[in-house]
Amino acid sequence: MTFYNEEIGFLYLEDGTLIKGKGFGAKGIRAGEIVFTTAMNGYPDSLTDPSYRGQILVFTHPLIGNYGIPEIRTVNGILTNFESEVIQVEGVVVAEHTEPFKWNSAMTLDSWLKKEGVPGLQDVDTRALVKKVRTFGVMMGVLASGIDFDDVNVKKYLEKKYDEIDFTQYTSPKAPIIHQGNSEDTIVVVDCGIKHGILYQLYQRGFTIVRVPCNYSINKIMDFDPKGIVFGNGPGNPNLLKDLAQNFKEVTEYKLPILGICLGHQIATIALGGKVKKMKFGHRAVNKPVIDTTSNRCYITTHNHGYGILSKEDLPPNTKLWFYNPDDGTVEGWIHEKLPIITTQFHPEARPGPWDVTWVFDKFKKMVVKNA
């Protein structure tokens, strides 16, 4: 049975479009960049992905909430069924919010949003909304649940643009966090908002993981005597993170194995002289194809990014194309020709999504063992 919270609500876009619906979740007003995902499942993972910080997420699948929200599970401090400890999105837009029917459901999506203070909007033609975003590109919006449009000065919520804010200040830890593994090999994860799915894949390979704040200096990083370094995912505009790019450049002087994922892939590109640009509406899904140029194989992968290397001409010097997206030619990964550095724009841990490319973590482990 589908139920509706009869609250009023609306979504106002910066181009003047007003979309009225029915609020659910927490009462309130939030502003953010309007983005969409075509994933049919994994909404608990998506909503807790720190890469969505500062964004209002539209789900294209018509029924969201079917299997509810489970209890949190952890292994050595690493979440195994969420990507972070809190909901990261500014707001949620769905066509229809549904009651859960699953054995391990601990609460409804509606209850979870209320608990976390995040507003939602349902009874929306999400297909029309997504077509608009695909046609005109991502834009800022204001979402309200339980509040009438006539009672809100929406303009004041649109004064700051998504591209102008460093969201890593909200998603990066304030101090190092250690996850002890069963190996003597320690790797440092530069944590700008790392997904726990990435941490879990690294932990499964025996590494002791030291997560350091996004703004940690190279000297503090090297104090941990790492055998390898991971620059992980995170939110926002990578071109704002000049200090992080400088840190990456300095790390390369130690010739340690480096894995860059998503934001880390972008930072690596900028640090070494490549170009990262804003995409029209980005890639956010669990079914995006990428071609591995070393084998000519196609893999189905998970994505969440609004910036990218839009062509191989924007690659940094001394790197070669590793993966590309056959749909639009976006660079999805590169390999450095002189240094032990590999990157992927997609999420190789695939949570949610297919497990086609978890072998990327095996490749990184081999690089660490070889370099040790």
From TrEMBL:
Lineage of the species this protein comes from: Archaea, Thermoproteota, Thermoprotei, Sulfolobales, Sulfolobaceae
EC number: 6.3.5.5
Residues forming coiled coils: none
Chain positions covered by the region annotation CPSase: 1-185
Residues annotated for L-glutamine binding in this entry: 51, 234, 236, 263, 266, 304, 306-307
Name under which the protein is recorded: Carbamoyl phosphate synthase small chain
Assembly: Composed of two chains; the small (or glutamine) chain promotes the hydrolysis of glutamine to ammonia, which is used by the large (or ammonia) chain to synthesize carbamoyl phosphate. Tetramer of heterodimers (alpha,beta)4.
Residue ranges occupied by any Carbamoyl-phosphate synthase small subunit N-terminal domain in the UniProt entry: 7-144
Family affiliation: Belongs to the CarA family.
Gene: carA
Catalytic reaction list: hydrogencarbonate + L-glutamine + 2 ATP + H2O = carbamoyl phosphate + L-glutamate + 2 ADP + phosphate + 2 H(+); L-glutamine + H2O = L-glutamate + NH4(+)
